[in-house]
Amino acid sequence: MSYKIVILVSAEQDMKELKSYIVNKFSLATWQDTYSKLKDSIRNLKAFPFAGSIPEELERLNLTQYRQVISGMNRVIYEVRQENIYIHIVADTRKDLKTLLAQRLLRSD
Predict the structure, then answer these.
(1) How far is Cα 21 from Cα 103, in angstroms, rounded to an integer?
(2) Which residue stretches of the chain have pLDDT < 50?
(3) Which of 25, 32, 63, 65 is the most exposed place for a label (fewest CB within 10 A)?
(4) Percentage of the chain surpassing pLDDT 90?
């Protein structure tokens, strides 16, 4: 089966925030390396969509349709539905997922 990657607006916003943080704290070169690794991880989902693990925090909430892959110091949280892979969150692995989800719910678009 051929899967289509759909990066949701929320994940695009995560990437912009991550880029800003990395460029300001480290360097543009560090961001380019991070971004390249993220793209590779996301691209690999097309071939192996169920290879990612279910995030512990979401499994406890019985939200087992979500999976994650780790890319360097970041995790990509996604969902596989029919022929689509929806990228929901891109976040630093050190961020608390519960806090991130609460912020996401309160974020006004």
Answers:
(1) 17
(2) none
(3) 25
(4) 73
* Residue 103 token pair: 């912020």
Residue 46's identity, in one-letter code, is K
Name the nearest CA neighbour of 76 among 14, 21, 19, 17.
Answer: 14
d(CA 6, CA 101): 19
Amino acid at 91: A
**What is the C-alpha to C-alpha distance for residues 7 and 78, in angstroms, rounded to an integer?**
9
Q: Which residues of 16-50 are buried (b: 16+ CB within 10 A; e: fewer)?
A: eebeeebeeeeeeeebeebeeebeebbeebeeebe
